[in-house]
Write a structure and sequence with these properties.
- The chain has 33 helices and 27 strands.
- The chain is of the alpha/beta class.
- The longest helix is centred in the middle third of the chain and has 21 residues.
- About 55% of the residues are buried.
- About 5% of the residues have low confidence.
- It starts with 7 loop residues before the first strand and ends with a helix.
- Helix 13 packs antiparallel against helix 15 and helix 20 packs antiparallel against helix 23.
Length: about 1000
């Protein structure tokens, strides 16, 4: 099928209807003809179709306080979650999608505010009328979702009764085709309250007399009300790629006008006109359409009028056409009915199955359908072969607004593409959530789906990376396997053991450790070269810098054998370290990781200085090449790491021509000197049971034996252009930040060559800066391991990782693990995983199962306790705040005899803050705005405080004293300035006036 220029793709769907809370379950129910309506209830009433999570909501995910969630209509809450699920189904993270996203939604009239919220005076007082209006008025349905998800396209609430959600889809199509937006969220929601309640049939009603909905059967007498929600995500077809489930070819909307008996009566001419117009817009003929999802309410008049309109618009052809009616299985979801019918039709053309209309006990014979081509399938059947799958959907609103949409299978099949080239499963698996518990729930669901699934693992990894919102609590794990089955098992295993590794921050501080000579180098870079083309280019460039200034030819150094004598040549090893470490820093920048603190060891400090702009890259290479050459001409010597403190190390070397070359850690000191003296040190260490390890060097660096090299190197640096560092570089001489005077002084770089490296002091300063991420950018993992030991049990523990590792694990896997770890801390890493060939549809975010409801239960009966789970009972003091007397119930006002001593006032304020937010107990250090408080909420809180304490606290007082402790102190200060005598006189005057008025009456 050729997709016309004005086609729009359905790239994501989500539903919550009776019996199903996801598209797969919904489609399975539809195909097997399942009826999810309860029928007659034990109390003799007739059941209404119900859905999950009417009183549940993930307030934390969407940035709402428990109190705010409790006063918000369940319809607004449900459509927020369902829209999130639809975006996940589409594989779209709207924060990173480049286009504008429009919102087109409608809802029913649940009566939640009047039935529940207004009946809870404490909740009303805590939230305020304006916040309650924002959470309940239909005007704010679309705009609240746009705010919650950060969407900047048009946000329109559409209301046309039963046709609302299909009209919303029509408006969304127009917005996309006129480029008002680039992605559209369209749908609707209805919640029948109270949940679980039934209805009583009355003669002549549009509701069914037996709780069953039987469209297009003889004797059908009514519909069944139901709760439901549905959302589709739409994108212009030419931009949808392989992600399309179906394409919408055209739509039309009209109104019946006055051509009917009454406002609520349907018109066959009006309905036929909208069907014909949609066909014309789509450029299709009636014979093309093989399936029509009807409005199908099962009311006698409604069915007759709809069949007459269908016969007029579609009946004059011989090609068979099946009629569908989703209401038979789930009831009439009112404002959501149109989009639910559309989702059913989308799944039908996607899967190539014509779904049945469920047969139910008590059905009469099928009614005459108005045209020979129409039939009601009672079993699922394959779409006739040889025909493009075209379908249509109708939705007719009480009041006369009619909508019709034409759709088809996508031009590019939405099924699994050919497996991508390259190794399967290479890349980090990532997940994030609003809380650690949510992350564990989500990974558990995903693990089972991955283990049982069939989508290529690369598509799964790509969808998780590109198609899910990035939230604070994060997990990442590199996946590497030789074949698809192994990759799938590795991913499932990793997910089953996943937990939050870090809480991301918006701009994490990244520190980088750059090792010096003495680490094992054989094979360095081999694995990463093979896996990362970017690193291969970057390392080639830095090796070329070395070669250009007369340095060694490092080509193929990753293949040199372990016993190659070049590994002991300082004039080779130092330029090699420079080249690989500088290339790794370039790779970090390419991936969006920006180091702001650099600590290099010996030659590593020159790499750090080069990256920070002290040297240009060419000058940095020249300095390192000359440094290595000069040091290699120094007298031969031996270096060894002694695992003890500096004082003990000096005692072990007492009387020998041995120097402290480096203090790498409080318990690791490097000694250096002539071979015979160092042999004696080793003998003494063995006698003292002190561990010692020789380093792979041919000289005693950072010792007096380097004095001649240092003098010559000072002259070399004097010929270079030096600058103040752009980033924080920690000095080897002091451990403190390298200042401009040191960085631009050639003598500093000479001293750095032959005096003790104070690396341990640098580590201490680095940790005092509290970086969020520390990466070892070079061969080995010595310094990363050291930091892990130092920070074990510390209050602040950064994410610590190595970019290459020590050769015991695959370098590419280690590198991916490090970049994934940086991502968990909040680094804006990008391009770690290729986009999927098509979105992998899999279980999405596991919403919190938290109840948010006012003091009346969902069934309307009074409830004890707070508005939301986790909040203290009404009238109880908020725990966690120092107090000496219980807080007031919140209904009382202080009178003339009330004391306003500090503890009582503080207790009352704690209770009022608790009412305002709900949820966890208020703590003294809690900040009103960091808790999520808004200006509207602040104004309401100030109003309540003033009303309760008879004071004049200003809104500015809360802005300037936003922690609970500071605010309580400010209120106490204002109370201390109040003239209680004048207040008592005023109260007496008011009471006297009231008595006079009562006497006159």
């Amino acid at each position: 099928m050729h997709t016309p220029d004005n086609a729009v793709a359905v790239i994501g769907v989500a539903v919550r209807v009776p019996g199903a809370a996801d598209p797969d379950t919904f489609w399975a129910d539809v195909v097997r003809g399942h009826v999810a309506l309860p029928g007659e209830l034990p109390d003799g009433t007739l059941g209404v179709g119900g859905i999950d999570r009417v009183d549940r909501f993930d307030a934390e995910l969407f940035g709402m306080s428990p109190t705010q969630a409790a006063v918000t209509d369940p319809q607004q809450r449900i459509i927020t979650e369902v829209a999130w699920q639809a975006l996940e189904d589409a594989g779209v993270d709207t924060e990173r999608d480049p286009g504008r996203v429009g919102v087109f939604l409608g809802c029913g009239d649940s009566g939640y505010r009047h039935r529940y919220v207004d009946a809870d005076p404490v909740l009303v007082r805590a939230a305020g009328r304006q916040q309650i209006s924002l959470g309940n008025d239909k005007d704010y349905l679309a705009t609240s979702l746009a705010f919650r998800l950060g969407l900047t396209g048009p946000a329109l609430t559409v209301q046309t009764a039963c046709s609302t959600s299909l009209v919303a889809v029509h408006v969304a199509l127009r917005s996309l085709l006129t480029y008002e937006c680039d992605l559209a969220i369209a749908g609707g929601v209805t919640v029948q309250l109270p949940p679980g309640a039934g209805y009583t049939y009355q003669e002549g009603d549009v509701l069914s007399p037996d709780g069953r909905c039987r469209p297009f059967t003889r004797g059908s007498r009514g519909t069944v009300p139901a709760s439901g929600a549905g959302v589709v995500v739409l994108r212009r077809a030419e931009e949808a790629g392989r992600g399309a489930r179906a394409v919408l070819l055209g739509s039309a909307v009209n109104n019946d006008g006055a051509d009917r008996m009454s406002l609520v009566a349907p018109s066959p001419r009006g309905q036929a006109a909208v069907l014909e117009e949609a066909l014309a817009v789509a450029g299709r003929k009636p014979a093309d359409i093989g399936f029509i999802e009807t409005h199908g309410t099962a009311t006698e008049l409604g069915d007759q009028v709809e069949l007459a309109a269908l016969a007029q618009a579609y009946g004059d052809t011989a090609e068979p056409c099946a009629l569908g009616a989703v209401k038979a299985g789930i009831g009439h979801t009112d404002t959501a009915a149109g989009v639910v019918g559309l989702i059913k039709a989308v799944l039908a053309v996607q899967h190539g199955v014509i779904p049945p209309v469920p047969a139910q006990p008590g059905d009469g014979p099928d009614a005459p359908l108005g045209a020979d081509r129409f039939h009601l399938p009672r079993q699922a059947m394959p779409w006739p072969g040889g025909r493009t799958r075209y379908a249509a959907v109708s939705s007719f609103g009480l009041g006369g607004t009619n909508a019709h949409v034409i759709l088809a299978e996508p031009a590019v099949a939405a099924g699994p593409p050919e497996p991508p080239a390259g190794p399967p499963g290479r890349g980090p698996a990532v997940l994030s959530a609003a809380s650690p518990d949510a992350l564990e729930r989500t990974t558990a669901r995903l693990a089972a789906a991955v283990r049982e699934g069939t989508r290529p693992v690369n598509d799964v990894l790509g969808t998780l990376w590109h198609g899910r919102r990035r939230l604070p609590y994060r997990w990442a794990c590199p996946i590497e396997a030789a074949d698809e089955a192994s990759a799938r098992a590795a991913l499932a295993d990793a997910l089953e053991s996943a937990s939050a590794q870090a809480k991301a921050v918006p701009e994490p501080t990244v520190a980088v450790l750059l090792p010096g000579q003495g680490v094992a180098l054989a094979g360095t870079g081999r694995g990463l070269l093979a896996a990362d083309e970017g690193f291969a280019r970057e390392w080639a460039d830095t090796r070329a810098l070395v070669r250009a200034c007369g340095g060694p030819d490092l080509e193929g150094c990753w293949t040199w054998p372990d016993d190659d004598p070049r590994w002991l040549r300082t004039d080779v090893v130092q330029p090699l370290l420079f080249s690989v470490e500088l290339a790794l820093l370039h790779g970090l920048r390419r991936h969006g990781v920006t180091p702001s603190v650099l600590l290099g060891h010996s030659v590593g400090e020159l790499v750090a200085a080069t990256w920070a702009g002290v040297f240009s890259e060419a000058d940095g290479a020249r300095a390192v090449v000359e440094r290595g050459r000069l040091m290699s001409c120094a007298p031969a010597g031996v270096m060894a790491a002694v695992l003890t403190g500096e004082d003990t190390a000096r005692e072990l070397a007492a009387g020998l021509a041995v120097d402290v070359c480096a203090v790498n850690a409080p318990d690791t000191v490097v000694l250096g000197g002539a071979a015979e003296h160092m042999a004696e040190v080793e003998r003494r260490c063995a006698a003292a049971r002190v561990k010692v390890r020789r380093l792979a060097t041919a000289h005693a660096f950072h010792s007096p034996s380097m004095a001649e090299a240092a003098e010559a190197f000072t002259e070399v640096v004097g010929d270079l252009s030096l600058h103040a560092p752009r980033e924080l570089v920690l000095s080897n001489l002091t451990g403190a930040p390298l200042d401009a005077a040191q960085a631009t002084d050639p003598a500093y770089w000479g001293r750095q060559l032959h005096t003790t490296v104070r690396f341990a002091e640098g580590v201490r300063v680095l940790l005092d800066a509290a970086p969020h991420v520390v990466l070892e950018a070079g061969p080995g993992r010595t310094f990363a391991s050291q930091l892990r030991r130092v920070t074990r049990g510390a209050e602040h523990r950064p994410v610590i990782a190595e970019l290459l590792g020590d050769g015991k694990r695959d370098e590419a896997t280690v590198h991916l693990a490090a970049l994934g770890a940086a991502w968990t801390a909040g680094c804006a890493t990008d391009d770690l995983v290729a986009p999927p060939a098509a979105p992998a549809r899999m279980p999405g975010y596991a919403f919190a199962d938290t109840r948010h409801w006012p003091a009346a239960n969902p069934d309307g009966t009074p409830a004890q306790g707070a508005a939301s789970e986790g909040a203290p009972p009404q009238g109880a003091a908020a725990p966690g705040v120092p107090e000496t007397v219980p807080a007031r119930s919140g209904q009382e006002k202080p009178g003339a005899d009330d004391a306003t001593d500090g503890p009582e006032t503080r207790s009352l304020l704690a209770a009022l803050w608790q009412e305002s937010f709900g949820g966890p107990a208020i703590r003294p250090q809690d900040n009103f705005f960091e808790l999520g408080g808004t200006s509207l909420q602040a104004a309401q809180l100030i109003s309540v405080v003033n009303d309760q304490l008879l004071v004049e606290v200003r809104l500015q007082d809360l802005y300037e004293h936003s922690t609970f402790d500071d605010f309580a102190a400010r209120v106490a200060e204002i109370l201390g300035e109040r003239d209680d005598a004048e207040l008592l006189e005023l109260l007496a005057e008011i009471e006297g006036q009231g008595a006079e008025e009562e006497g006159q009456a």
